[in-house]
4-hydroxy-3-methylbut-2-en-1-yl diphosphate synthase (flavodoxin)
Amino acid sequence: MNAACTPIEAAAPRPRRSRQARIAWGSRVVTVGGDAPVRVQSMTNTDTVDAIGTAIQVKELAQAGSEVVRITVNTPEAAQQVPYIREQLDRMGIDVPLVGDFHYNGHRLLSDHPACAEALSKYRINPGNVGKGDKHDRQFAQMIEAALRWDRPVRIGVNWGSLDQELLARMMDENSRRAEPWDAKAVMYEALITSAIGSAERARGLGMNPDQILLSCKVSGVQDLISVYRELARRCDYALHLGLTEAGMGTKGTVASSVAMGILLQEGIGDTIRVSLTPQPGEARTQEVVIASEILQALGLRSFVPSVTACPGCGRTTSTTFQELAKQIDDHLRAQMPVWRERYAGVERLKVAVMGCIVNGPGESKHADIGISLPGTGEAPAAPVFIDGEKALTLRGDNIAAEFHQIVETYIEKRFGAAG
């Protein structure tokens, strides 16, 4: 077998080439695009009129890692509560920027409720829902004027479920006159991109700084999203918000979002992401933030929490000890991150391995910062612990889990405490 002439190239996401926008509240500035990290965004599902309930959910999302949170502003009553939501968050020490999600009547709400316009850090405008006919351009302009008045960035968010029907009908008519007409889906793709970029150009014509314009073209199909965003990124350099518009529930929504966004992010496309996950009954809204963070961490784009490597189990691991220990460690690391993030600089890059038998256990543990290889079925009741690639000690007895838990705590304090 001939040796390769050159080393195998390491896979890595391509660099992004978008403009950089700024979303701010007070001294908190979240940069989006350019050389900024890919940001995690989420959205509340509370009734915005319930200011306390909405503020609590925003706090939960922010503490889970959401760097921007969008809230629905759909009625005068909701608009009136936005300043109080912002006030409650400020009192709790939560400075996450809020984005107002406007449809149909945003031009009136921003004009009639200046305190709402001021309390929001960004406005989401759907060009398919700002009015029809001659009202469209006038009402779109009113929203841009509000953004200029309060010096706020905007996201022009096109959605194929609410696409400008007049634009789509016109493009369908033009397509029918082609010598070789495109299929309907290709026309839909073109309409989405035309609506987004055309609206951005209108905003610039009204005086909007192009650095403060973000775009999105959301669809619900994985391959559709990839097709649309590849072309959108080719045609413009605006910062792009990425996500399936309706990802779905549970594993379906998780897998669809991970596949679609993973492919695009690897290609250097996407500056903010949101996993639009339908919560399972009783499931916390924060699950969508966890999944978005995991996507970025899996690609090596960001580090949010220490990673725990654990084997899936097989006939060698009939004991559930390693599964229980892996879950305990993972849950503990996530629960402690709000405190550790402030106390231990760099702790989010920690790698922990919890393995179940002698086959891959020692080797995998050596690759981690700290790892343990638990005894599999029929193996001697001993668990070697590896620290920084070297075997440090061997645990035995009935308290292996508790002892390893303490070893991890001590390691974090010793390694990251000094850095903090």
